Amino acid sequence: MAVIVQKYGGTSVGSPERMRAVAERIVAAKEAGHKVIAVVSAMGDVTDDLVRLAAQINPEPPERELDMLLATGEQVSIALLAMAIHSLGHEAISFTGPQVGIVTDHGHTKAKILEVRADRVRDALAEGRVAIVAGFQGVTADGSITTLGRGGSDTTAVAVAAGIDADVCEIYTDVDGVYTADPRVVPDARKIGVISYEEMLELAASGAGVLNLRSVEFARNHGVVIHCRSSFTGAPGTIVEEADNSMEQAIISGVAHDTSEAKVTIRDVPDRPGAAATVFTTMAEANVNVDMIIQNVSEAGATDISFTTPKADLVRARRAADAVVAELGAREWQVDESIAKVSLVGAGMKTHPGVAAQMFRALSDAGVNIDLISTSTIRITCVVEARQVEAAVRALHHSFGLAEGDVSVESVPACGKGE
Amino acid sequence: MAVIVQKYGGTSVGSPERMRAVAERIVAAKEAGHKVIAVVSAMGDVTDDLVRLAAQINPEPPERELDMLLATGEQVSIALLAMAIHSLGHEAISFTGPQVGIVTDHGHTKAKILEVRADRVRDALAEGRVAIVAGFQGVTADGSITTLGRGGSDTTAVAVAAGIDADVCEIYTDVDGVYTADPRVVPDARKIGVISYEEMLELAASGAGVLNLRSVEFARNHGVVIHCRSSFTGAPGTIVEEADNSMEQAIISGVAHDTSEAKVTIRDVPDRPGAAATVFTTMAEANVNVDMIIQNVSEAGATDISFTTPKADLVRARRAADAVVAELGAREWQVDESIAKVSLVGAGMKTHPGVAAQMFRALSDAGVNIDLISTSTIRITCVVEARQVEAAVRALHHSFGLAEGDVSVESVPACGKGE
Fold first, then answer.
1. Does the ipTM exceed 0.90?
2. Which B residues in the span 13-42 are in contact with A, Cβ-Cβ below 8 Å?
3. How far is A284 from chain B (nearest CA, A)?
4. Does 3.30.2130.10 match the CATH number of domain A261-336?
5. Which of A191, A237, B133, B176 has the fewest Cβ atoms surrounding its Cβ within 10 A?
6. Is A179 exposed, middle or buried (0-12, 13-18, 19+ CB in 10 A)?
7. CATH 3.30.2130.10 corresponds to the domain B262-331
8. Running along chain B, 419 residues long, what does each successive block of 10 average in pLDDT?
9. CATH of domain B3-174
10. Which segments of chain A belong to CATH 3.30.2130.10?
11. Which residues contact B393 (CB under 8 A, 6 or more apart)?
């Protein structure tokens, strides 16, 4: 008998029929002898609809009240799912984030989980019930309802799995696993069977939308095994777990891309100590998420500072950029919304220095210009024009032979362990 | 400076435009120097929509989960209203029933308020904010979300007004006060300026839908002055307060009618001690609200027991009636859904014994048959055929001269104080 957390996204519970299908899947796991905790998102487009409704009332709603509003989406889902399970003759009990004791900080609309007091979930399981938990939401120590930001239901699921020491956290979604590239862009993309937390983190951070970045971080930090799979088929999906060093690692796991960011450039920042600190402190205080940062070499006592940020943060970023330009005496700021990121991720690239060169050549051969570059030990990201991103993804997927599961790095031999 | 609770029903907050109008009314009261607590219902038909959604999933949903679902309706309203007030440049903070500390019993879907811990509301007022409270909902001592039943938002408003010792509880609705009869049925019905708790209770219990019965009871028990008025006009409505004995009371306050009940008859109940107790204990355990009860005189060792109950309770009532018939060895049960109640209410009728006679004559003259009769010291109710109820209401309103505010009881002199 295993303790299983099953997380169902908005598409999986998007209609009464789908809600029933989810209930049947949960009941099947329970009848197989497992203890099941279900974490659910809001149905379908409910969260977007609520955001639109709020915008009709107040274009910049107070974030505490936005959280109060959005938290209702998941509350509807948990109640309906509990009803669906009851109609199948099994006992289920639903809990909101506050009821479960998902305690967060005060960062409304993107709160961080501080603690999971899962006593009520444990009690429900001990009583033979299915516990149903609202994803995406929590409560501050002083009792305000918070939300965890988009994708927060994945984080809830992993946090609950960690809190009750579950054997696995199954994340059900509308795709059947993590692929070597987005199958909508690359038709011969391959499903990845097992992937390490580190690679999954880089893929998620680079735009692979299947799993939420924070949930993977949380899973790595707490040793929660994630099984990412489809809610529409019974097929196994992708397991995310600690890298098994006894196995040989693929050089490249996959290609991810992301069109959700924009580039902000502060032009002609006077080159003095603390200028960059001022820029990014101001952005942080304005609640602007900053991803890639590039500072050019200084010319004539001034420099350009560029960074990428989610388009969703641009209203705040523009306002903060005004403040930065005024404070630093910079020339101006510019925003480019027609950019995209394309990233190559693989734990094996640590020991294969030719990967970057091959990546740049493949992009060049495909006629794709590179604007910015950033790297980690297992990832290389290029910012390109948005209109070229699909060509870039296909070129990289082909160049590294990802469709064949037989990744080759041209010309450059793998580094030996002795080097 | 007064402390004012303002309650807005679902129609008043039924669209973003109306939500804004409510926000403007609240802000006007605040700018006039008052401390304002707003209690709101779910927008428009949201609660009905949620009930229908639940029925698609499970025709008999567990009541705890139904409460979990329905509570989201008011939570949406409070968040949006807070946003609307912010957009007018004022501070507002929303609270769910659990957050305010509306502690109830475990009677899911019709919970009773045990306690109001309004500390967070008091704090918000002290900070100069408008406090916005979700109507209709509360929380059990062990943390489950409950709802108070239809009309529960009025009860929330009165309970919060009592909890913070407000000067008045303004109940805004889509009509501009309490009338001598339903103006849709009787076009020349008159708005009542002031009415006592007792008369309002009888009118509300008899089907006058403007104010919720429990909220008036709660107001009477805690001395909360209610001002029932329209959210669409600034006109004064109807004040409900302690009867002022120095004023002469109208003989008749109004005529109420109610088509929401059905009549259940248990036929040929063996005439033995405890039979009636068995019937109504079984109904109470099945959560069936019983209104009027009539037991005919016994014939041949058996009797019929009839009662009226909300049609909404009929599913449960039928099941309980099966159990009753089996347990008592009664012949059968019957349900008549085509009945209506028509009631005459007035504190003055205590001292005017001719009222009942005039009522029965007026109904008879209008060709209306009377099925059951029940009375209190200030009310007489007749059950009639549903198709005749409007004729009955018009006949009574006319017979007692309610349109002229000059109520006459024919033939019978008023009882003197000495009698």
1. no
2. 16, 19-20
3. 24
4. yes
5. A191
6. buried
7. yes
8. 95 94 96 97 95 96 97 98 98 97 96 94 97 97 93 94 97 90 94 93 86 90 95 88 70 93 93 87 91 79 90 95 94 96 90 86 93 88 95 96 64 34
9. 3.40.1160.10
10. 261-336
11. B181, B182, B185, B186, B255, B257, B342
